Amino acid sequence: MEAITESVDAQLWAFLPVLIAIGTIFFLRNVIASLFIGIASGAVIWAIMLKAGFLDFLHLIFSTIFGSAVENIALIGFIYMLGALVYIISSSGGHHAYGRWIARKIKTARGVSLATMALGVLIFIDDYFSCLVVGSVMDRPVGDYRISREKLAYFIDTTAGPVCILAPLSSWSPTITQTVENAGVDNGLFVFLASIPYNYYGIFAILLGFYIAFTGKDFFAMRKCQADMQKKTAVSTGGEGKGKIIDLVLPNAMVVIFTLVATAWLGGCFGKEKISIIEAYAAADTTMAISFACLATIVLCFVLYIPRRLLSLQQFFTGALDGMKSMFEVNLILILAWSLSVITTEFLEAGNFVEALMQFHRESIGVSFLPLMIFAVSALIAPGLGSWGTFLMIIPFVAIIARATEPSMFPMFLGAVLAGSVFGDHASPITDTTVLSSASARCDHISHVKTQLPYALVICLGAAVSFLFTGIFRRPLPGYAAGIILVGVLFFWAYQRENRRGSSNP
Question: Tell me, what's the pLDDT at 3?
Answer without folding.
Answer: 46
